[in-house]
Design a protein that fits this description.
The protein has about 270 residues and is an alpha/beta fold. Helix content is about 50%, strand content about 15%. It contains 12 helices and 11 strands. Strands 5-4-9-8-6-7 form a 6-stranded parallel β-sheet, with helices on both faces. A 3-stranded antiparallel β-sheet has the order 3-2-10, with no helix packed on it. The protein has a two-stranded antiparallel sheet with strand order 1-11. β6 (about 115-120), α6 and β7 (about 140-145) form a beta-alpha-beta unit. α2 (about 50-60) packs across α12 (about 230-250), α3 (about 60-65) crosses α8 (about 175-190) and α11 (about 220-225) packs antiparallel against α12. The longest helix is centred in the C-terminal third of the chain and has 24 residues, at about 230-250. The termini are close together.
């Protein structure tokens, strides 16, 4: 594990629900990742929202995989609001899908090489076409659908390694994507590894993202329930209630040290 001292930081990590979450803006994250690409030093990204925080408490494997990330970012507005109410404020939400688009925008100017892993073969193909049309300066180093079993993981990882990508987007569900990144990030040798969940479905036009106002008010989960009520209502009802319970316990518990001092650079793996 090495330090990337060339990247400025705001010097703090917020510890929320026992999870170290970086107090960084989107631009600070992007500047750090750009420097990591230039230095070929690896950064494993993790993002958390209310549902994932709840599931981390119930799934030790997911908890371990998320905590193995070099940067853990607040993907959900509920996490940002909880941080503020707990007296450990975060500067803003850094949503995984927005970070993906911003990385592509910067990659457009820099000629970054991108590998896309996940989703169905159809969605993967459409995403490749969208990247080629919308970000022609980005080099699509390779792609692979996300429907492979454990026996096929190493072959996929070696294909990514051979592609010599600068950025890997992993569009698979939790905890599969966290497990894949935690297990194979050393072998694949990609500077930036980012699990983007269902972002490929959005980019391919298969799923509509919530309007900006819904996002601002932290209601993306409700927008998904409206789109898929039969599949989503129970999941979000349970996870949101459990997250509220966790917040109340955190609020009433003896205050831990809310801010952990960082060095000039985050944890990065050489």
């Amino acid at each position: 594990m090495s330090e990337l001292a060339c990247c400025p930081r705001n010097g703090t990590t917020r510890v929320l629900f026992g999870i170290p979450i970086e107090a960084l803006t989107m631009d600070q994250v992007l500047d750090h990742l750009e420097a990591s690409i230039a230095a070929r030093q690896r950064v494993l990204l993790g993002v958390v929202n209310a549902a994932k925080i709840v599931n981390m408490g119930r799934n030790p494997e997911l908890d371990h995989a998320v905590r193995s990330a070099d940067l853990i970012l607040a993907d959900g507005m509920s996490v940002v609001w909880a941080a503020k109410l707990l007296g450990r404020p975060l500067p803003e939400r850094v949503a995984g899908i927005d970070l993906m688009y911003r990385l592509l925008e910067r990659g457009q100017a820099k000629g970054h090489r991108v590998y896309c892993l996940g989703a169905t073969e159809e969605v993967s193909r459409i995403v490749a076409e969208r990247i080629a049309s919308d970000y022609p300066g980005v080099v699509l180093a390779g792609r692979h659908h996300g429907y492979f079993d454990g026996d096929g993981e190493e072959a996929v990882a070696r294909d990514i390694q051979a592609a010599r990508a600068d950025i890997l987007f992993v569009a698979m569900t939790s905890p599969k994507k966290e497990r894949f990144l935690a297990r194979w990030h050393e072998l694949i040798d990609v500077p930036i590894c980012h699990g983007v969940g269902g972002s490929f479905d959005v980019m391919a036009g298969k799923v509509r993202r919530a309007p900006a106002l819904w996002q601002r008010w932290g209601m993306e989960w409700l927008y998904r329930v409206v789109q898929e009520p039969g599949r989503m209502w129970r999941r979000y009802l349970v996870s949101n209630c459990l997250f509220m319970g966790m917040f109340v316990r955190e609020l009433l518990s003896p205050k831990p040290s809310p801010v952990g001092e960082l060095t000039a650079a985050p944890r990065s793996r050489a």
